[in-house]
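Pipeline run #58 for the internal structure catalog. This entry was flagged by the ingest filter as a single-chain record with no existing model, so it goes straight to prediction. Upstream metadata was stripped on purpose; only the residue string is passed forward. Reviewer on rotation: M.T. Logging verbosity set to normal.
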Amino acid sequence: MTENKLAAPSLPEAVNGVLNLGNVQNEFIQVIIRPYAKIDRGDKITVLFNSVNDQNDFLRYAYVSDPDDFPPKGIAIKIQPLSAFSNDQFNVSYVVESRAANLSSSKPLSITIKNAPGAEADVQYHQAAYGGFYLKGLIDSWIVPLDYAISQNSDVLISMLGDLPAPLGGGALQDDGAVLTLSQRTQAVGELKPVGTMTYTAKQWVFALSGSGVALKKGDELSLALKSDANLSVTVTI
């Protein structure tokens, strides 16, 4: 296992080191990862937002589906929802992990977040779109912004994306039999436990709770993991 320092990421929406979320026009911000040496299919890019106060850390994932399509100016990774942010100073960096488990980490970029949506706002749910080829394992994680519960299957909304091009190399937009596992990590216990599963069969998604329901607390971590490599074309609201 080797480790090499990569160039720091960039945030187009940040001005002079300040990211004013009150001026962001979209429901996401972008983190730009510049081309790096030995870009390979299946590379996992983990973007980390590390709070200077060690209270509001979070991360996001992306995968390289085809190195030939890596943009010369860098790949843009969408960070959403904006409710994941807090008014704080962050060191933003990323780690590239190849399928051979070689790790390369970047230099950090220091930014200050202003006008972040508060936990008291109406944003209660996490919504994200997953489009393209994903490798098995963790594909997303986020921090619960406030207390709420997932008490029935209909509390998790799943819909297909309809505007994606065909996957590189051909094949269906959505792999039949794809399974996503939703898990919770509580602050008190720190153990990851399954909440439910999302299964794609017969051209539709179905969510099933693992038990009778789960109570989420502000600061808990939720994550989505893919059971096996698959093409995804789906939006999830939790």
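catalog note: The domain at 127-237 is CATH 2.60.120.1180 (Jelly Rolls).
catalog note: Confidence is low (pLDDT under 50) at residues 119-124.
status: ready for reviewer M.T.
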